Every structure is written in C-alpha cells, then in structure tokens.
C-alpha cells in the first residue's frame, strides 16, 4: 500500500470459480426499491460496433437503522444489436456505503480496489446478448452518519477498457429519520446525517477529504481511456521480516 504505479487493472484479480451468472427475478429485489435508473452514468471507452452497455441502480433503497444493512440491485444491460463478448461488472462502495457481498461475484483484492473506495466485487460475464440484462443482489451496509456512494464500471474481461461507468453516485437523504425502523435513501442525493446540528458530515479519512464527489467525477472523465480512477493502483505493503 506504500507505493503506487500507473497501470490498467488488467487480469490480476483473483476471480473465484463461479461457473454461472446469477440472475435475479423481480421478486428477489428489495421490496422498497424504486424504479431502476442510470443516473450518474456515462460512456467512457468506445464499445465495439453494435454493443451498447449501460447499468441501472434503484431510485430508492432503505437502510435498517439498527443493523445498518441494506439491499441494492445492480443491473448491467446490453442495449445494442450485437453480443458483448466477455465483459465484467464491478460493484464498488465508497465512504459510508460498504459492499459486503454480490451474489455470484468475487471480492476485489484490497490492492486492486479503486483509489478512495472501501470495498468491491467483480462479476465476470462470458457474454451479454443483444437486448439482454443481468441483475445482481448486492448486500451492503450504510453508515448513516456519513455520505455513501456506489460505482458500477463495465469493462472488457481483461479490464483494459471501460465501456460504461455509473458513479460514484450517492445514495442519501436530506430528511434523516433516526427514530424510525429504517431510513429511505434516494439515488443521486447527498446524505444529511442526523445528529447535533446536522450541518456537516463527519470526516472519513484523508482521501475522502481531498476528493468530494464532484472532484472524483471530474477525475474519472479526465482519465478516460488511460484506465480511469483505478489506473493508480496500490501494491501490497512488503511484509516485515
């Protein structure tokens, strides 16, 4: 973690041997999720002719005020006229939102996580047919005393190109409800924590202080085909001997 090098995350992830993508039926999604939205999404590298990859997140999620647990459905779609070939979806958490599990996917090793993120999973897809979509059940926790963001990049199977990226986009509320069983959060809304004053978010570490959402978004677009925000990857710290 003490040194960095500029490189695209190419095939160094330790991917568990899941043989099939887990598809969710409509009943598997959290009951309180609103309509799916591509808010905060943008095309990055040019996709092959006839392939148009996008992602969707629910407009609304609900966080249990006791356990801080929440459920999110992440969807990747091919809205084009041709099959995608091998691709992968990343599901990455920032600040108060921590991704605990994504059904059918593998944890991203800590040294390969995007800069500033706290957790993430990679979902390999052998092929996404034209007009098809895959949805994934995301288990997460959300510290309601912080801002929380999620990011869904869609890359080539080797990670050398990123065709689409949704986020980092926030979930939050401007009307906290600490005495209720759960707090509803809306996509694209900065979180306003409940507490004395409620005017300022607690600090969440040096990287987060330096990179608020707007700066992060700008840096992603600026990076472009050079590998985006995970192009500066941390190596594991040398073991002390």
UniProtKB/TrEMBL annotation:
UniProt entry keywords in alphabetical sequence: Signal
Signal peptide extent: 1-30
Region of interest called Disordered, as start-end residue ranges on this chain: 172-206
Biased composition (Low complexity): 173-187
NCBIfam families per UniProt: LPXTG_anchor (TIGR01167)
Protein name: LPXTG cell wall anchor domain-containing protein
Lineage: Bacteria, Bacillati, Actinomycetota, Actinomycetes, Kitasatosporales
